[in-house]
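P.,

For your records, the input lines for the assembly:
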Amino acid sequence: MNFDLNTFYLLAAVGLPLVLVTALMIKPRAKTLIYLAPWMALPSLLLALLMPVDSVIEVPWLLLGSFIGLTETARVFLFFTSIVWLSGGIYALGYFENKVKNATFFIWFLLAMAGNFGVIIAQDMLFFYTFFALMSLSSYGLIVHSRTPEALKSGKIYIILVIVGEMLLFAAFVMIMRSVASIEFTLVREMFTHLEENNLIIALLLLGFGLKAGIIGLHVWLPLAHPVAPTPASAILSGAMIATGLLGLMQVLPLGEVELPFWGAFMMVIGMTSTFYGVFVGLFQNNTKTVLAYSSISSMGIMIMAIGLGLVSPARWSLVSLAMLVYILQHGFAKAALFLSVGVFAKPMTSNITRFVFILALLIPVLSLVGAPLSSAFVAKKILEGQLYLSSSAWSEWVQVFIPWSSLATALLLARFLYLIWSKTIKVHKDSKKEQDNLVPKTMWMSWLFLVVMVVLSPMIVLFLGINTGSILELISVKALIRFSTTITAVILLSYIAWYITKRHPIPESLKIPAGDLLIAVEKYILPGIIKSLTHSIQTVQKSSRWLVSYVNTAIDSGLGFVTRYMGELDKKLKEWTVAIVLLLTIMFIFILFAWRL
Amino acid sequence: MTPAFLYALVGIVLFSIGLYGLILYKHLLRKILAINILGSGVFLVMVALAARTGDAVPDAVPHAMVITGIVVAVSATALALALMLRVDAETGQAVLPEDREE
Amino acid sequence: MNFDNWVPLLIVIIPLFIAVIIFALAEDKIKTRSTLNIGASVLSLGLVGIMLWGVSKGFHYETRFSFLPGLDFVLRADSLSMLFVTLSSALWLLTTVYAIGYLEGSPHRSRFFGFFSLCVAATLGVALAGNLITFLLFYELLTLAAYPLIVHRGTQKVRRSGRIYLMYTLTGGALLLLGTVLLYSITGTLEFVASGFLSTLDSSTHSLLILVFVLLVSGLGVKAAIVPLHGWLPQSMAAPAPVSALLHAVAVVKAGAFGIVRVIYDVFGIEFSVTLGLTLPLAIIAAITIIYASTRALFQDGLKARLAYSTVSQVSYIILGVAIAGPIAAVGGVVHLVHQGVTKITLFFCAGNLAETLGIHNISEMHGVGRRMPWTMTAFTIGALGMIGIPPLAGFITKWYIGLGALEAGHGWVLIVLVGSSLLNAAYFLPILYVAWFTEPKGDWPAEKKLGKYETSLLLLVPPLITALFVILLGLFASLSFSALAWSEFIISKEFLL
Amino acid sequence: MRKIKLKILEKKPSLFTRLTLGILMFLLAASLAYAVWSLPTQALGLSAEVAKNVEMSGVSNPVTAVLLNYRSYDTLLELGVLLLALFGVWSLGGVSANKSSFVNPILDFLSRFLVPVFILFSGYLLWVGGFAPGGAFQAGAVLAAAGVLLFLNDWQLERKYSGFSLRFVLVLGLVLFVAIGFGFVFLDRVFLEYPPQLAGGLILLIEAAATLSIGISLAALFLGRDPSVKSDSKIDTGVHK
Amino acid sequence: MLIDSPHWISIIILLPILGAVASFLWRQHIVKIALTTATGTVISVGILSWQVISNGVQCYELGAWNAPLGIELYVDGLSVLMLLVTAVVGFAISIYASAYFEGNKSKHFWPLWLFLWSGLNALFVSSDIFNLFVTLEIIGLSAVALVALSGGAKAITAAMRYLLVSLLGSMLYLMGVALLYHSYGTVDMVLLSLRTEMNPAMWLIMGLMTVGLLLKTALFPLHFWLPAAHSSAPVPVSALLSALVVKASFYILWRLWIVVFPLDNDAQVGLGFILGVLGSLAIVWGGVKALQQTRLKLLIAYSTVMQIGYLFLAFPLASIMGWKAALYFILAHAIAKTAMFMVAGNILIHKGHDRIADLYSTVQHLPLTIVAFSLSGISLMGLPPSGGFVAKWLLLEAAIVSGQWWWGIVLLVGGLLTGAYVFKVLGYAFIQENSTNEPRPIGISKRMEWTALSMALFAIVLGFIAPFVLGIMDIGSPFTKGSL
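Structure tokens returned:
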């Protein structure tokens, strides 16, 4: 077993959180252990920085012989995921400062963390699938942590969808394994070329990973899970975990090698629709975290569109992937920061200055998400536009048009978010004078600010991580600046109008789309029908089987009764001499008859 | 119709009558008597057919068997009678339980 | 008759011998009885270890003496039997420890442990049997030895389930006997031969051979709880926990499945069964069992009843794996023998713990039990996830291989069955985990007992944890040379003339 | 002797049963008759061998020769059967006989006259067995008749003799037969094989002892219970039902 | 030297008779005499069978008169096994009875029992059909007297009925002997087997003798006397009746069927079919009735009716393997049934009644007895480790080889029915409810429990020594036509 150092480091990154979990299981109330929890993300951060890239290592003794290692994309993912986990963890320490009775939250937290890191370093289907399952199942614990009825209900929906997703992935992986006869991603991608009936496989993969990434139709659990989960958990959920869905697709699909026009186009369309659908429904929500959830859905939509582009014109994939990485990195930091900010702003501020600084810090991630010139989102969208323009397929022109509109839509949604945060903080602000001690714990706003800084630095980080997107500066052309300022003014104008209208006659309740839109509809109209018919059929089956059983029983009993009675008489009769001897003689005569016939 | 066959025929008739009596009558004494008739029927057949040796002296072996048979029948009857008395003493009537007409 | 010839016999004789001694032991001699029990299981585990090492080195262990004209009593250690023997003797040790803890202070313990070791002797015999007649002998002994364990509690309900158990298993035994005699009258030999000895027979006997197959499989199917014949298993859940743990997770049920594996591989030979067109219907029946039993499990409120139905469906995985005539599916089927055994015994141990310490029998009473007995519930969770087939655990390996093998052999529909049944498994296991971990306890427990300073007495707590650990290890390190998976590949490589 | 209610007018079984039984009996008799009729009219059976070996057997009457030499084993077992019947009757415990004090004078006179005649006559029968029809069983029967006559007169065997000595006499016939039969095995002969020259004497000896045993055991059978046991004891119930 | 002297055949007959006579004479130390005779008989039977096993069939002309005139004793594999089983069962019963009977009862028991034993030994060795009649009578009368020994109204009436039935059977058999003698001039089986041929007289002979013996063997329609007799008799006697006496008349029918009756193979199959059908009815009837019984001894008696049915299944098969199976059934059933009756006896004495319902309290005091019951139950059911299984296997194989698989099915159904009633009884042994307060149970002597257990264990061991036993069965090939 060649136990070289790299394997040790990789496995340690994943193994360490698990070790701490067992420690916490043994001594749930040890304060020191709990404080250790966030720092478990550190080794993977170091790994992301120092590990040589492209070293796929075979670990023969683990599972069915697994392959792990850091590829280009994996390194970026590992980097921003570990940072999000780190800051989320520190934030959680503050968030649970007084309330933490025992370490249940941190046990689920560490399990999900291990799962997340495992998924990133996995280079074969089984290792990926194992840690993907670990991550999804343990995040259930995070979602239902508050144990409120809505939390449990959305948890239930989440776990059902996760299990269905798992099973679809299992089927897909088995089919791949059958035709590819190896579980390593590289070989899987190569073999994809001559895979004949791959439509079913790709559909299953799309469903499986789409569920995690929140494509339209499969996104229903996101808006329900995030608001109920504790803030740090929902931050990590939408910051790091959703991205693993994308990572899965990037690992398995033959991006850049095989041209799958149909699936590419399909994904582009799906991506775009979910972007705008996310924003459209998001606007109607009045819970800050649900708005953020819908914004994650819309940004994921863009990523799906990018993958679709990769499938439609594989030649463009090299640059598109860079754009995706940049966007995901930046989106991770920004979305996590926004979620954390919700928690921070929920607490009263001490003085006006801190409040002003906080609002400024809040604006940075919002602007970067919208695609402000200096932000990496801007870079990503710029590259995407370029590639779309260059790709030959008919769909790409149509999509290319929508890119600018998408940034407008996200801007609108985030404006809605700002409005909601603003209205909440003001209320708290008034009576903040009384409870001085209810201040924002230091760890919370420290980790939040750390993330904001990360958002700012993301263009540089991208460069540092070796993704040469060309120097940021030459991209910022004057035209881009103008376009950006126009969108900003349009957003301010539109939001003011919207605010003004809603103040006069608020939107009637019935029109409001509840969180989890499609699912609610399904639940209200379709599901009850199905359940009713199902229970009805089961009842009929049970009733008939019960009737049959009782019928059979009565038949047997009466039969037995008859037999015993009949036998009783026969027995009594047999005892009489006449009958006995007559029988004797008859047997003798039969015997003689037989002998005679012989 | 040699005399031997004639006697054998009588033996057979005795046999049947014995069997008839054994089956029909309930009282144990009648049954024991029937058994004896049955036995003597068989012995008669045995002895009758022994006389088919042509000359005056019949075949001795069946005769010896009949003597043994008779002794066996006697001892069996003795035991049967003693048992009948006990049945009568125990159950008040010399009839087998299944034949009892209460 | 050197040492090699004595080892298999010794392994079977030790528990038999112990049973006789324990029967004679007075009720209050707890110390001696426990030491005897554990000593016997450790001793036989050691012997199995020696044999395991020997078989891998190529030694040939066989005990043979003539038993009927033309038929011998044969105990032979081939690779397939080694797998099942190791499983049974390992789990026997654990269950003994568990049973000692579980039956603390209950009456008739001598009688219980006597019949218990009798059962184990029968299982080891079933595993080591070298021909069909010896297999039949121990198979019937198992039926008999299991009955007193089922009716151990002596209540009316238990006796009724005992009666149902007998009705099924005795008829099964009769069918098996008829099949064996019919086979013997056709072929003249009953020895297990690596890839079956029936292929050489001329085609005139094929219709008879199909009848023999049907008789044998239905006889064995009763114990393997295939759908129409599974009625007795859920009923016999009223037996005490160690009984349902060892018997219904390992001994009785496994003997049936193991028998079917033996019949298909070592009597008919897989290719010949395929030519006779027997494997497909069997696979379909196994699939129906899996789905039907899982749906039935959904509606059971009793914890052990739900586990029982899950056993019924899980055992059919083995049959499904074997019935799909591909080598990979076969590996899945055979390895599931071990995995299902280990996982199911963990679940039953935990169910037993809950029943013994807190008096919980139904799932509705399990609210917040995770907080009261965290370690038991962790073991239960590992077991449950293993059953559903979540990757790092043992169950996943089986489903992976069976799915793969099925596709290999062109039976696509099996994959759908696998996915469907995994969903059903999740549907009936996750609510239990949900109720245990994520809900608040409602008032106090039905019959709480304080057993030792941990959540329950160590004797009850350690076995499930060990088996849960096994569930993880078997899954995590499946590719190692001495793991169950490698061993089953070694078995299957001999069966399929690749 | 307790009166046994001999219900004469037993309820007649129904006509139907009697009819079927009648038919069956007729059928049985007819088939037997047919079978016997189909036998050869002339059949020597074993009379030739018997005649050939009679002088070897030590007696001239062929029946006694068969009975006590050729098939002596049967006779041995037969004595056993008789003794067995006695054991059986004694084990039943017998019914307590009520002694009627009134002695019938006629009976008394007749018995005083006839008993010695019976004894004499049985002695003759024993002797004539060798060369004419007679022998142990017939003699024993006559002796038993004498015994029955005595019992009818309320004759009681003295207590002194009704113990071991009675049982010894009962058993004497069988024991002597076995002793003689097996005795010659030590003179390297087969069981129940008599040296030809001694055969006659031996047979007579066996017959004498047999007559004695048969006579007394038949009489004891008539008495119906073990005289050594006090007659008033009610039927002793079994120790375990 | 003494060991290999040819006279052991006569000794095994005479010794019990002398024992009976001696125990009749010297009543004060009756048990000592009886037990010494019993051991003596067992030893002599052992020596005889060792002789036969080592140097084959033995033929012994009594009184040095050869066949047609004199009586010949003939011992082959079949008779050796029957002698051995009688010796084993007899010895166990003697030990059991020595503890079971006291005082007055044992005074009557031993002479009758020893006479019965000698009758059995005489029957199994004799090859003369009239001699068989006499031995049959010895067995019949002693059995009747023994049944009447327990003295109750039920026992006496059962004995009376049994006597009448056995006398009727013997008379029918005697009529057959008479006809046989007068058509072929001899009563020796060997000579008869050469001379008999199919003619009207032969039909009748076969009819009479078969029906007579069926009545004494209590095959299904003619079984009405057996349950009452076997259940009301004292325990050692009912064990004797079920294990040995019933088998004696079967043995005679068997010998006649193979040796005397002029039946070629398909004639045997044709005629055997009737017996096979009656046997199957017996199995089903016995099984179902046994299931309905509430008292243990009656249950065991009906199980005898069923087991007899098994024996008659061998007739329609008419193959050597079928006969061997029947013989194995006799061995296994004799030993298992003796053990079961002893168990019933122990329970009866211990609690005063043998109602199955409240068997639970006995289990506490008589663990060995319940183990004996389950072991003998296993043998009766024909489950693997036992002698019953070997017999069931051989019969099943014979049925299938001869193509008449339906007898196999009947056999299996029988096995299930036996399983049903054995486990019904065992089930009660596990009930936890504390039954009504029983009168202080009477302790029973260890000897009785250990004999029951040893017989049960022997029934299981019988399963493992099959090759040896089947080897004995081949001596003198008793099952081929012209064998004797």
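Two observations worth noting. The longest helix of chain B spans residues 60-91. Residues 3-94 of chain B form a domain with the Helix Hairpins fold (CATH 1.10.287.3510).

Regards
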